[in-house]
Write a structure and sequence with these properties.
Layout lengths: L16 H14 L15 E10 L1 H5 L5 E12 L2 E7 L8 E7 L2 H4 L4 H4 L6 H6 L2 E3 L4 H11 L1
Antiparallel strand pairs: 1-2, 1-5, 2-3, 3-4
């Protein structure tokens, strides 16, 4: 698991008010997400909703069948890369259960063997009908079409 580091700026008691105001103004200008009422801008990039049943394939190979409903809310990071937030339902109180990246088969095939072990195909889910693209509003559909072509 990666290590995360954060920068903590400790202000000495003798720091004057002008410096504090200057730092606050700099943060509000340069880091608007820190400002009150900031929008959740990364979420505005979501333009695709996939609903799927995720089957525990290792268990299925041993005769045990277990599946999990998974709602994927995806954005296009770039032409050949989707980033999806996976929730356990489509309700307002849904729990985030994963993050998944999707690439086309031709990109996957160029990955080295060790990297390929970390990925899985959605081909079975698509062919079996266990994965469905949900209806989007017109604005999101237009954004999706633009990214797909």
């Amino acid at each position: 698991m990666p290590t995360y580091r954060s920068l903590v700026h400790q202000v000495s008691p003798v720091c004057n008010l002008i410096t504090l105001v200057s730092i606050s103004r700099h943060l509000l200008i340069n880091f608007p997400a820190m400002a009150p009422n900031a929008e959740f801008m990364p979420l505005h990039n979501i333009c695709e909703w996939l609903n799927a049943l995720h089957v525990y394939t290792d268990e299925a190979r041993n005769g045990k069948t277990r599946a999990l409903e998974a709602h994927h809310y995806c954005s296009h990071v770039r032409k050949n890369l989707r980033q999806c937030l996976i929730y356990d339902s489509g309700r307002q109180d849904a729990r985030l259960i994963g993050v998944e990246y999707m690439v086309p088969k031709q990109v996957y095939e160029k990955l080295d063997a060790e990297e390929q072990k970390l990925w899985h195909s959605h081909e079975f889910e698509v062919v079996s009908g266990m994965l469905a693209v949900q209806k989007l509003g017109d604005q999101l559909h237009d954004k999706w079409e633009e990214l797909e072509t």
